[in-house]
């Protein structure tokens, strides 16, 4: 299992070139997720794993955004990017682990987690924290790669799993495991992103 230290080390390495490596490739999925999540005025939004802030231009200008990440190097880029978006002055960024967040219960109208679920150490704690900080009538929107349970793709994912610490995420990441361990109530799952290999997941806390 990937450790927090390994995740931090991996994304410290990714930070200088992250926008080039993962920007255009994943941007359509980011855009779709944010437009779905942040579709109402004046929402307080938590983005877990905000990274370098590539999602920021897609938020409504009246949103109030808290962005967290375990990588200080990625957050520094997000802060700089925020200053050049309509959200300037309405963003607050913190170095924080999604499995032990420092927010009060029921703080957010929407919780967004893009390409994060396969990087955490304990999915049960991750899911519990998301449910805790989301308001009872709030929404949860996630995007992640999810592995097919069998076939060549699964075998390749298992093979790459030995390098998960260096990659900073779990290559083999089946959807049934995510649903069972997070405890989230799933309301919709749609293919998104390049070739539909990513999944956009809508959920509620209860």
Shape field:
globular
CATH superfamily: Vaccinia Virus protein VP39
**CATH topology label:** Rossmann fold
Structural class: alpha/beta
Architecture per CATH nomenclature, i.e. the level-2 architecture? 3-Layer(aba) Sandwich
From the N-terminal CA to the C-terminal CA, the straight-line distance is: 28 Å
Mean pLDDT: 90
Number of domains: 1
The proportion of residues forming helix, as a percent range, comes to 25-40%
By DSSP, the count of extended strands is 7
Poorly predicted ranges? none
Largest sheet: 7 strands, mixed
Strand content: 15-25%
What does this structure look like?
- The chain has 7 helices and 7 strands; from the N terminus they run H-H-E-E-H-E-E-H-E-H-H-H-E-E.
- The chain is of the alpha/beta class.
- The longest helix is centred in the first third of the chain and has 20 residues, at 18-37.
- The chain is globular, with a radius of gyration of 16 Å.
């Amino acid at each position: 299992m990937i450790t927090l230290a390994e995740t931090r080390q991996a994304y410290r390495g990714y930070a200088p070139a992250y926008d080039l490596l993962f920007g255009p490739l994943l941007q359509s999925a980011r855009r779709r997720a944010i437009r779905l999540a942040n579709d109402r005025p004046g929402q307080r939004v938590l983005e877990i794993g905000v990274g370098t802030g590539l999602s920021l231009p897609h938020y409504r200008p009246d949103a109030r955004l808290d962005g967290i990440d375990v990588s200080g190097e990625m957050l520094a880029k997000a802060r700089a990017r925020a200053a050049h978006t309509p959200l300037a002055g309405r963003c607050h960024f913190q170095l924080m682990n999604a499995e032990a967040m420092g927010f009060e219960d029921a703080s957010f109208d929407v919780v967004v987690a893009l390409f994060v679920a396969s990087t955490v150490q304990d999915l049960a704690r991750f899911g519990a924290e998301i449910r805790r900080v989301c308001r009872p009538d709030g929404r949860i929107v996630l995007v992640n790669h999810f592995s097919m349970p069998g076939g060549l793709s699964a075998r390749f994912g298992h093979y790459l799993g030995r390098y998960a610490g260096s990659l900073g995420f779990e290559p083999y990441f089946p959807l049934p495991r995510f649903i069972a361990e997070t405890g989230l109530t799933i309301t919709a799952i749609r293919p998104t992103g390049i070739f539909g290999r990513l999944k956009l997941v809508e959920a509620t806390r209860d």
